[in-house]
User: Which sequence fits this backbone?
């Protein structure tokens, strides 16, 4: 077959050229979701990495242009099913800001609590699957044991385990009760009692150290070039967090730290996420201690919501980083455009730079450590 | 991403600048520019320590008779600048991949969904839709996705 007949000309190579190509995914057992990495290899070293995405594209942005603002609400938690609550409530907050809708004080605080529970849940799942990628099966079972508690707590209040539609423009669907408060408090105590075990089981493990330390280093410069955000950026020494940079939804009231590390490797990303779980616990405690009374439901139900004409941008800190919504309103009850700026999309884009020159065996550790969720990337 | 650097001087590059009314819209500053100036604008933002936060496109053929590109730049201490670039349908804009590698995937997505081409892009091909698709899905005349009757997620 000569070059002009080749169906994949980019894979042609000259005689004597020792490069070869390796497709990792979209059906690889330790590749997350349906990500495909087209690796150009020499020996065991990666010369070039091209992430190929789009296998889970569901046209959420097209759907948004086809329906009223409120009808897009169930879509939001399906964009990133692991931090669905943050997306769902983030969308409500964006619309509230556009239309100037007031939210009852109690709903503001409850939103913070469920958001942080959702963040812990997402980090726990990442923790388990990351260790699974590295070959450790035991931590996964412990993490899912913990995570199941959060899913049950949220399921009882919201009616769903993952794809929440708990937010409404101007409030929430249902109020929390005493049992929720008790369960959340008990869960925080339980999680805190588990942290020493996680440290002993995982962080102090020599095999884990060897697989993570100095692997997949992201410098602050690479992060800036590719727009990397979230725990990956904070592990590279930049303390950027939307909750602090552009406080929204009452986050400015709570005392919490932005954990950072400077190494930028897989280990730093691990440590940042573990610290973030503790900070989320702190936020939940403060919020529960200072829970106002009152109703959480919207004060007034707007049947035909028509936001003012113009462009709007609203960002929240999702479990994986900066989630932004660019919403264009033409004054009708249907969005003219909604662009979802998802954190994993930018975080994954940096992989072509980060994986270049590394060993193929480190690919799984590196892609695992950035915590990508493919449905969020493909939308 | 650095903290509190001064915003770049965009004199001569943007035709219109205005405060963005951050409280209501989420933008600190709004700018309108010609397609030919976007690379220089991106360069100045990069040199001032800003990152390309997001880039997208709008199909505005109905009201503006054009396509409109939207770039937002931001830094660690929030100062969000949005730059609107209008270009005719079927037109081409220069790629900012040279200034921000993150522009690579954003531009590929805009090409994929709207058919806007970017001059100088190293690898302009589809990213989310299949390679052999013959449509650009977010164009307003592509059609609608109707609710599936009885269909689930």
Assistant:
């Amino acid at each position: 077959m000569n070059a002009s007949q080749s169906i994949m000309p980019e894979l042609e190579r000259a005689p004597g050229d020792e490069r070869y190509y390796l497709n990792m995914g979209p059906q690889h057992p330790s590749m997350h979701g349906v990500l495909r990495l087209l690796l150009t290899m020499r020996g065991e070293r990666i010369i070039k990495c091209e992430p190929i995405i789009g296998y889970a594209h569901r046209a959420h942005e097209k759907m948004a242009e086809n329906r009223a603002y409120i009808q897009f609400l169930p879509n939001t938690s399906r964009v990133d099913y692991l931090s669905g609550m943050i997306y769902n409530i983030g969308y409500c907050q964006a619309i509230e800001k556009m239309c100037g809708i007031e939210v009852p004080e109690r709903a503001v605080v409850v939103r913070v609590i469920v958001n942080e529970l959702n963040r812990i849940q997402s980090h726990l799942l990442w923790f388990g699957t990351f260790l699974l990628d590295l070959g450790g099966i035991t931590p996964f079972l412990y993490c899912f044991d913990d995570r199941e508690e959060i899913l049950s707590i949220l399921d009882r209040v919201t009616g769903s385990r993952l794809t929440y539609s708990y937010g409404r423009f101007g409030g929430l669907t249902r109020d929390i009760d005493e049992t929720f408060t008790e369960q959340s408090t008990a869960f925080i105590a339980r999680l805190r009692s588990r942290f020493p075990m996680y440290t002993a089981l995982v962080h102090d493990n020599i095999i884990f150290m060897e697989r993570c330390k100095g692997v997949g280093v992201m410098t602050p410069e690479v992060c800036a070039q590719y727009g990397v955000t979230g725990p990956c950026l904070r592990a590279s020494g930049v303390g950027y967090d939307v909750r602090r940079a552009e406080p929204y939804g009452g986050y400015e009231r709570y005392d919490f730290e932005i954990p950072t590390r400077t190494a930028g490797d897989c280990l730093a990303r691990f440590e940042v996420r573990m610290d973030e779980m503790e900070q989320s616990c702190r936020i939940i405690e403060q919020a529960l201690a200072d829970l106002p009374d009152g109703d959480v439901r919207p004060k007034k139900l707007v049947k035909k919501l028509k936001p003012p004409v113009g462009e709007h941008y609203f960002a929240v800190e999702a479990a994986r980083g900066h989630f932004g919504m660019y919403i264009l309103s033409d004054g009708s009850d249907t969005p003219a455009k909604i662009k979802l700026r998802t954190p994993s999309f930018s975080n994954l884009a940096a992989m072509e730079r980060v994986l270049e020159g590394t060993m193929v065996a480190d690919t799984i550790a590196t892609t695992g450590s950035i915590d990508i969720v493919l449905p969020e990337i493909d939308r | 991403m650095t903290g509190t650097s001064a915003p770049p001087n965009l004199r001569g590059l943007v035709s219109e600048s205005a405060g963005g009314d951050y409280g209501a819209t989420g933008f600190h500053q709004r700018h309108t520019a010609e397609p030919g100036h976007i690379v220089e604008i991106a360069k100045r933002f990069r040199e001032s320590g800003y990152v390309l936060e997001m880039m997208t496109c709008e199909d505005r053929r109905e009201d503006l008779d054009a396509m409109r590109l939207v770039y937002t730049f931001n830094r660690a201490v929030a100062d969000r600048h949005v730059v609107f670039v209008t270009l005719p349908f079927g037109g081409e804009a220069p790629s900012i991949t040279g200034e921000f590698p993150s522009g690579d995937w954003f531009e590929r997505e805009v090409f994929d969904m709207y058919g806007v081409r970017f001059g100088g892009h190293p690898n302009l091909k589809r990213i989310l839709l299949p390679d052999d698709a013959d449509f650009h899905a977010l164009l307003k005349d592509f059609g609608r996705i109707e609710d599936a009757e009885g269909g689930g997620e």
Remarks:
- Chain B has a mean pLDDT of 84.
- The interface with chain A takes residues 1, 24-27, 51-54, 56, 58-59, 63, 70, 72, 76-78, 80, 82, 100-102, 104-105, 113, 126-130, 137-138, 140, 142, 144-147, 153 of chain B (CB under 8 Å).
